[in-house]
Specification:
- With 495 residues, the chain is of the alpha/beta class.
- It is built from 14 helices and 11 strands.
- Helix content is 31%, strand content 9%.
- It has a 7-stranded mixed beta sheet, with helices on both faces. Strands 1-2 form a two-stranded antiparallel ribbon. It has a two-stranded parallel ribbon with strand order 5-11.
- A hairpin with a 2-residue loop joins strand 1 and strand 2.
Length: 495
């Protein structure tokens, strides 16, 4: 028996994509490669985020220790810069410059459409359920716009990230029906605790009788994963109030962690079923007034720093009722942007709280990496082998808004273009930057000039692995590569 990669399970007006099965192998022409860009705001505390000097084997920086089980699948990059903001621009505008190949202008207009949207317009022809996903856990607040978003369809139109921050909507978007009536039936099913799997179960059982043992196990695991996500989504969706900021504020307690992990699970399922091959995911947006009191400080930080009960209680207070994330990133200043005036928290306490946030973000990324590694991939190996999951931020150091020498982690092999299990320092850039121990930790010496490669080179290198010809003229409905900009960017050798 042979199945097309696009075979669906159908029932009740719904169509449910299948994961990769061995019976599809004979029809597969190539291993599809997926790209995930996971971005966190407000920079990093570099002393805990920067890995050791390039070496093989390498050790992970303290903030990255939750990735230790997957170290052989990681490529740590240094020597790559984001774009310097234009004179007079907001200090947090680099988040809008990550994927657009240049600084925003005085009126907050980006240089060109973002690279993910350039790729997305060309992925349209593959017939994927979604040519790309643009995700976050929050929409814009208080009229703030361009500096918060990475994805732009033109120099004036940014994609509100996300189009809907509710995982319920994301689930239905990926696995629901295209027909409005069937979609509404699926939405009612979720509200009444009935899963989408229930609609297609009869056909799934029929298919199962024709599969080999390994494929039966894969199908069962996939349906179980969908059912578990459905169970998590059975909680009533949050309602929106009249106040915009309140409407998109994170729910109280630990629900942000659940929301982030549900989004991560759905990204994994989307990659597993080849529903999309391109995802940009902002864990949050720059300068947002977010407090992380739901985080429970660990007994030991990534570098082995012990935290006794009294210190953990104090950090819990600092995280939850004291300062916002952006304020904590300016740990050496007494007052930042009017936040927490006359702060009683010491610089050391701010640093420890900041490290707790950054380790928590890394754990969300590590969870996705682990799930991708646990799933089989096309062509043998794991699904992670056919992925490129990038973890970085738009600034390397939040306290100074520095955009040079970004800490970057890439998980996966990109179908063979990446040799992981090492730290690679990229050379051959054109920008110079004077380093210091405060900014660069173990990675540099005072006065060293770093010639960083622009991050554009990383994006086009990874984009090439998706099989997109950046030099081809755009077709109908495709975004133009204005001035052949992306095609002329230097490529990196990541093998």
């Amino acid at each position: 028996m042979k199945l097309s990669r696009r075979t669906m399970l159908r029932g009740g007006g719904l169509s449910l994509a299948l994961p990769f099965l061995e019976v599809m192998e004979a029809r597969a022409q190539a291993r599809p490669v997926r790209l995930l860009i996971f971005n966190t705001p407000n920079g990093f505390y570099r002393r805990s985020m920067v890995s050791s000097v390039p070496e093989m084997p390498f050790s992970l920086a303290p903030t990255l220790r939750s990735l230790d089980p997957y170290k052989s699948d990681l490529l740590v990059l240094s020597g790559i810069d984001n774009h310097d903001r234009a004179s007079g621009q907001d200090a947090h505008s680099p988040q809008a410059e990550m994927l657009t190949g240049g600084p925003t202008s005085q009126d907050k207009i980006v240089a060109r459409p973002s690279y993910d949207q350039f790729l997305s317009s060309r992925l349209r022809k593959l017939g994927l359920r979604r040519k790309s996903l643009e995700l976050s856990t929050r929409r814009t607040l208080n009229g703030q716009a361009s500096k918060m978003f990475m994805s732009w369809t033109s120099t004036t139109n940014y994609i509100v990230t996300p189009q809907n921050p509710d995982p319920h909507a994301m689930y239905l978007d990926l696995f629901g029906a295209s027909d409005p009536a069937a979609m509404e039936a699926a939405a009612r099913a979720i509200r009444h605790r009935k899963g989408l799997v229930d609609f297609v179960l009869p056909q799934a059982k029929s298919l199962n009788t024709r599969l080999g043992r390994e494929d039966q196990a894969r199908l069962a695991e996939y349906l179980q994963s969908l059912t578990e996500v459905q169970r998590q989504l059975a909680l009533p969706p949050s309602t929106c109030g009249k106040n915009q900021e309140a409407a998109f504020a994170y729910p109280a307690g630990s629900s942000l962690e659940k929301q982030m992990d549900l989004i991560g699970d759905l990204v994994v399922l989307a990659f597993q079923c080849d529903l999309t091959r391109l995802v940009t995911w902002q864990s949050d947006i720059e300068t947002v007034r977010m407090k992380y009191g739901f985080i429970t400080p660990p007994a030991t930080l990534g570098d082995g720093t012990p935290l006794d009960a009294a210190r953990r209680d104090r950090l819990k207070f600092v995280l939850g009722s004291h300062e916002y994330h952006n304020g904590l990133s300016h740990y050496s200043q007494g007052t930042v942007d009017g936040e927490a005036p006359n702060s009683p928290a010491t610089a050391e306490e701010r640093i420890l709280a900041l490290r707790c946030i950054e380790e928590w973000n890394t754990q969300r990324y590590a969870r996705v990496v682990g799930k991708l590694k646990a799933l089989p991939g096309e062509g043998g190996g794991t699904l992670l082998d056919n992925c490129m999951a990038v973890y970085t931020g738009s600034m390397s150091h939040g306290a100074t808004h520095d955009v040079h020498d970004l800490p970057i982690v890439v998980a996966g092999r990109g179908g063979g273009i990446i040799t992981p299990g090492r730290h690679l320092r990229v050379s051959g850039g054109t920008s110079g930057h004077a380093g210091s121990p405060e900014l660069f930790g173990r990675s540099g010496l005072p006065g060293t000039v770093y010639a960083g490669q622009k991050i554009d080179s990383l994006w086009v290198t990874l984009g090439d692995a998706l099989g997109i010809d950046t030099r081809a003229a755009p077709g109908l409905g495709e975004i133009a590569d204005t001035g052949n900009f992306w095609a002329t960017r230097a490529r990196l050798n990541l093998r």
